[in-house]
Amino acid sequence: MKKHLIVTIFVVLSILFFSADLISSYQDSYILSNNYLTTGISKENGYITFFKSNEAAQSLFKNHKILISGVDFQNSVIETSKYSISFIYDQNDFKVVNTYTLQEKNLLLSTRITNKTETKKRIQLNEIIDYSDTFPFFIKSKVLNNYVLLLQQDYGSFGYFPVYDQTFQRVIASNQMGTSISFFVLEPGDALEFTRVITVGESVSEIEKQYYDKFGIDYTTIEKNIILSNEKSAKGMRVVLEDKLGTIQDVQLVDEKGKAKFYLPYEEDYEDFQVKVDFGSLKTESVSLLGSEDLLVQVPENYFFFKPFLTDKREDGVIINFRMAVPARSNVEVYDSGSEIMVFEITNKFPLEYHYIELSGLQPNSFYEYVINVEDTYTLNDVKTEKKAFKTKHLDEDIDTFRFIVYGDTQIYDERHAYIVNRIVEDSDLNTAFILKPGDHTEEGTSEKSWSIFFESAYPLSSQIPYYMVLGNHERNSILYYRAFELPSGGGDYSKRWYSFDYGNSHFVILDSNILESSNLYEKQMKWLEEDLKNNNDKKFIFVAFHHPFWTTATEYGNMEENLPNGHFNTKNWLPIFEKYGVDVVINGHIHAYERHFKDGIMFITSGGGGAKLNTNHGADPLPWHVKHVLGKLHYVIFDVYEDSIKVTVKAVARVDNPLFPNQYTPIDEVIDEFYIYKK
């Protein structure tokens, strides 16, 4: 069976259960789909929950909301036809009907508002398109002097504008969301209808052409030839148009003839405009838009810049993350480990730099193998992995016991990180459920080279056992961290600065301890934390992981707040919440040693011996709830979770005798701590 990324579970459901219509139902959303588009619409409030081209695996934006003054979008009456779905809200002052209709590559949004009162009403209609968990390459909120919203992703683009007018009254766009603002006046008993369209295309320039054609705007077409040094086709490469200040004004993809065509209104002056290729590592110098010079692209050999790395383990699959040195299309073959028969094949249509391959539809608690094939899209070489194995998650209700492993703070000493990884591989098997890594994965989170070496070091383990990642201070909250890993959806930047997940009888919460108390994000994370714990109090065990520990005896860089009973501001704010909702275990990194505290029924475990320079000075007086600390040893922590208890084994795998020579270490095999945690 061949399965492509362009086919999602929603499309499959539509075909299986609603083959006569374009509308189906899945969990909390209605699904509209045709040959080109699939979109989800919330059953609760009629908001768009995702919007994607069927040629791509990812949604072009996170959600779309309609806000009308004086209208509560709850308790709607829903009407459907073969091609559309309507949400009807009949309230005191207004009757509002929001209708969504798919037409080929367009989603039409029609809002009809009726004034039911006997007085004139002024209405404000705001619409928010939230793309905060995606990585847009280019965002544009004006065409000529008209307010619209155009957005370019790596895997396509979308445009959003009125159907019968050239402009919204106002559009405000940031790198996280776009908001349109419209005002209307309704006389008593009157109604108005406002129709917009969200349309998809390969590039912003193609959508602009649709816009010009629709509204009769005259334009000229200017072409540029894109030539590769190895004489291969440049089809699909991204070319940008810049003004004289170097600001991107337009984006186009190279066509099958090797040309990038820009459609430009006559009334603008393009004398100082330039074009260049800007496509991952493939870049050129800028040349004049109006000149005759071609764009010549030097193409190097391709390889995995970020080696394959598994995340987000589920009952039916896992996500494979990797980054190529040169953008390319990829293909993943999945095999049953027992029979070695190919189960399915996933093909990615778009040449991408960052790849997130979601394997789904597999059997729970089963072993599979996979091979990644990266085609020679622009290079003269293709790239292929050896066959790697992984195991899907068992159904939670069927998990009697499970094991996960923690190791923290790898940072700059990549050879030591690789040593830790290989020792874990030697001592473990695929029955290890996952790896939890509590921050400081690289020395410099803004360095692409540092990340590349991190993935190289982790590969023997990360290619087979999924990781759950935590932000440390050395990640610098860099976009490189967020781009590297697909993680469960939560909150904060890209919806994965903090998040949670379940495994068996346990609930895991991942927090970012770097956020300052004065930040608005701090309060958001606090509210999310309390709500998450409140909604998961039926779990037997609750684990919370974040980078900075509440307490330590470390004085490596002088006295610290964490040497004192009150700890830092996170201690003050988070500890009462942990106590209130029965948190059992807190896992930290940051301190390059092993430490353990036990207070108010909570076990606090710090593991910072994953390869970073180890601490030598722990001179603070131990607090009354301090249990143990061990210095100078590279180590990892094994958690065996049972029905009513947790066994924790801390295994040291190397001793560093002289901190001045950190790459000199003596292999050991020593249990430096072992204990049980019982449910309070």
Automatic annotation (TrEMBL):
Pfam family for this entry, one: Metallophos
Superkingdom of the source species: Bacteria
Segments forming domain Calcineurin-like phosphoesterase: 402-594
MF (Gene Ontology): hydrolase activity
Protein name: Calcineurin-like phosphoesterase domain-containing protein
Organism of this sequence: Petrotoga sibirica DSM 13575
Organism taxonomic ancestry: Bacteria, Thermotogati, Thermotogota, Thermotogae, Petrotogales
